[in-house]
Amino acid sequence: MKYKASLFSVLLCMVFLPGIAQEDISPERKQAIDSLALEKVRDLSKYISIIGDKETPFSEANRVIERAVELFMEGSEVGVSSLYKPEINYYPVRVYFERLMRLNYSRVEIEWYKIEYVSDLERQPDGSYVGVITIFQKFSGFDLEGSLIYQDITKKDITVYVKRKETQIAGRLIGFWDVLLGDIRIKETMKL
User: Fold this and answer.
1) What is the pTM of this model?
2) Angle between helices 27-52 and 93-101 (to 10 degrees)
3) Cα-atom radius of gyration of the chain, to the nearest Å?
4) HSE-up of 78 (CA within 13 Å, CB side)?
5) Which fold has domain 26-190?
6) Which DSSP category does 23 fall into?
7) Other CB atoms within 10 A of residue 183 CB
8) Cβ partners under 8 Å of residue 184, min gap 6
9) Percentage of residues in the chain having pLDDT higher than 90
10) Tens digits of per-residue pLDDT, 24-50?
11) pLDDT given for residue 23 in this prediction
């Protein structure tokens, strides 16, 4: 009889707990999550500027790379394009940042602007949510004399993942929504 009771309890948890884990996001919570996602994208923008800046000391750039990698889901990739080549190359996040640090310019300026959601958060079968944030990136590369030798504007889509997580605080299990960035896809590269 105990076996049937415990089996029933397990089945009951399997039926009802996924509903708890996949709760809908209230409009207020969604607004907070949207703000957090946009803040993480703005942080990434700052990190990219620091990593790409040739005056950033090597140790500082590596520290910032570690912080930037933490913003992403494991396995995410970043697209790289050029006005000179039609193909877009995609690199694992860490490789992208390391390549950015070693760009062959004396000075690099990277500016992100028009950061906005293009697709609202959509609920996934596993209870998580996925959305897309679009940004425009202005990239400028300079030579030793300070002359501009390359410049473009790239429209990029950043996938945003929102997942329910739990942490233990003072012996209590607390649920929260976490935001992680995914792939950064190139949509268009244009002359300035």
Assistant:
1) 0.81
2) 40
3) 21
4) 19
5) Nuclear Transport Factor 2; Chain: A, (3.10.450)
6) P
7) 18
8) 76, 77, 78, 79, 156, 157, 158, 159
9) 61
10) 778 888 888 888 888 999 999 999 999
11) 58
